[in-house]
Design goal:
Shape: globular
Radius of gyration: 22 Å
Largest sheet: 9 strands, mixed
Bound molecules: zinc ion
Number of strands: 18
Strand content: 15-25%
Distance between the termini: 32 Å
């Protein structure tokens, strides 16, 4: 599980951007404290990854006098909501408490009764949420109900992290189309492999478990053919119990994907090939369970915009891109990404190591806003949101 011993970036930004130290008043301290408790709720929410669909991931903590008295997350579609689990966990302690939830509490009868009624009944004094829930049955009515019942509600703390947490759900509800998330693991000296062709575990097992949770919330996971050849990755969610693994997508302009690969009998992999790749090979892969889409090639391989449009055309609504450097650079250059997770391990590969393409990290191209910094059992996870995605989401969430 993610250990959020670090303050949230927005809290830190608020503190460090204040010109006069004496202006670090109670409001700013409260904001930093809210950020920390909301981080706890966000970490909890991730534990439901892969099991809550079509519901979003939600976590909640109940806090009184600076102590967490209750915590919970939405485990599975149809089961109790995070707020209710956290409040029940707190018991009588919920009276007069502050409730931190990663999404606006629901105000409608679904498979469970409205959470807002339970929150009022438990005597909660204040509710802190990062964003509204764009579901047409909620969309501000949860906040309105709470305020009408005398509960103070603060909206906006930890916004970027909350947008990343439910990127696919939110983009879909906001009619912003499918989503693309980039993920990369690097050493402190910015290397993605110890030498060309090497297959390395860069991060520890807890960080890898986080990657498997990321996979679990995406419909598809994409890699380039070089990574496929070098790593022969499974691209599954084996470190998370009881969730479905995403559909593998391989950018393979010459269609060298091996017939007889285990993915063909089960996960219906998508192979993105160039227009002049052999037709016979396509027939062979299709007959054994693969799906081949054809795209134009540009100087760096597959035309990424066309390729990803074809993948989405198959009904896959979210893709996690796991590299390698060339594929990563193509998405960044095209501006075709919403979220970015950088796993940084406290190790060095030195001069023989393979560097992340410098092109991929051109500042003007990246257009990234820092969303979160987390310590995951010794590895650091930096999460970013594309500024354009953030803007268009917040415009529609207002
Ligand atoms: Zn609810």
């Amino acid at each position: 599980m993610v250990d959020s011993s670090l303050n949230s970036p927005d809290s830190l930004r608020r503190i460090f951007e204040s010109e006069d130290p004496s202006s670090r008043n109670a409001d700013i301290d409260d904001f930093a404290v809210d950020g920390c408790f909301l981080d706890r709720a966000l970490d909890l929410a991730w534990l439901g990854a892969g099991s809550t669909h079509p519901n979003p991931l939600v976590g909640a903590v109940v806090v009184k006098d600076g102590r967490v008295l209750g915590a919970g997350y939405h485990k599975r579609f149809g089961e109790a909501h995070a707020e209710v689990i956290a409040l029940d966990h707190a018991g009588h302690g919920a009276e007069g408490s502050t409730l931190y939830v990663t999404l606006e509490p629901c105000s409608h009868h679904g498979s469970t009764p409205p959470c807002v009624e339970h929150i009022v009944k438990c005597g909660v004094k204040r509710v802190v949420i990062p964003i509204l829930d764009p579901d047409e049955r909620v969309n501000g009515s949860g906040v309105q109900y709470l305020r009408d019942n005398g509960i103070a509600v603060d909206v906006g703390v930890g916004q970027e992290r909350a947008l990343l947490l439910n990127m696919k759900y939110l983009k879909k509800k906001l009619n912003l189309g499918p989503s693309v998330t980039l993920k990369m693991a690097v050493t402190l000296d910015g290397r993605i492999a110890s030498h060309p062709g090497a297959r390395d575990d860069i991060t520890g097992v807890e960080a890898r478990r986080m990657v498997h949770r990321l996979r679990a919330v995406h419909d598809a996971v994409a890699i380039g053919v070089n990574t496929f050849d070098i790593d022969s990755p499974k691209l599954d969610c084996r470190l998370v119990d009881d969730v479905e693994s995403p559909v593998p997508v391989v950018f393979d302009s010459r269609l060298s994907f091996p017939g007889g690969h285990p993915w063909l009998s089960g996960r219906a992999p998508v192979i993105v090939a160039g227009r002049d790749a052999p037709v016979e090979k396509e027939k062979e892969l299709t007959a054994s369970g693969g799906r081949v889409v054809r795209c134009s090639l540009d100087e760096s391989g597959v035309d990424i915009a066309g390729a990803i449009a074809s993948v989405f055309g198959l009904g896959l609504e979210s893709v996690l891109v796991e590299g390698g450097a060339k594929v990563f650079a193509s998405f960044v250059r095209a501006g075709l990404w919403d979220g970015l997770y950088m796993f940084v391990s406290p190790s060095l590969f030195g001069a023989r190591g393979v560097a992340v393409s410098s092109e991929a990290f051109d500042k003007n191209h990246l257009n990234a806003e820092l969303a979160g910094v987390a310590d995951v059992s010794g590895d650091v996870v930096l999460s970013f949101i594309n500024k354009n995605t953030r803007r268009s989401m917040l415009e529609r969430l207002a």
